Amino acid sequence: MRTLRHLKRNEKGVIKGFTDDELSVKLMEMGCLPGVEVSLQLIAPLGDPIAIEVAGYQLSLRKEEASKILLED
């Protein structure tokens, strides 16, 4: 299954769900809701963290957190 971590820079995806219930509550409060389109905007020089665009703003996530956000195929 594809996760947010698999996106390349400037690639878009639509959130399908989450694999971590506790983290999902925090992410949903920040606008990462199922059905919402996200795009990978920036990747730190060492690859972690990443910045995504969601709900009209940029959100910084660790790769570990991004790997828990499932995307539609």
UniProtKB/TrEMBL annotation:
Coiled-coil features, chain-numbered ranges = none
Q: Which UniProt keywords apply?
A: Iron
Source domain of life: Bacteria
Report a single Gene Ontology molecular function.
transition metal ion binding
The Ferrous iron transporter FeoA-like domain sits at 2-73
Q: Where are the transmembrane segments?
A: none
By its UniProt entry, which Pfam families does this protein fall under? FeoA
User: Does the record's keyword annotation contain Iron?
Assistant: yes
Protein's UniProt name: Ferrous iron transport protein A
Organism of provenance: Roseivirga pacifica
Starting at the broadest rank, the lineage of the source organism is: Bacteria, Pseudomonadati, Bacteroidota, Cytophagia, Cytophagales
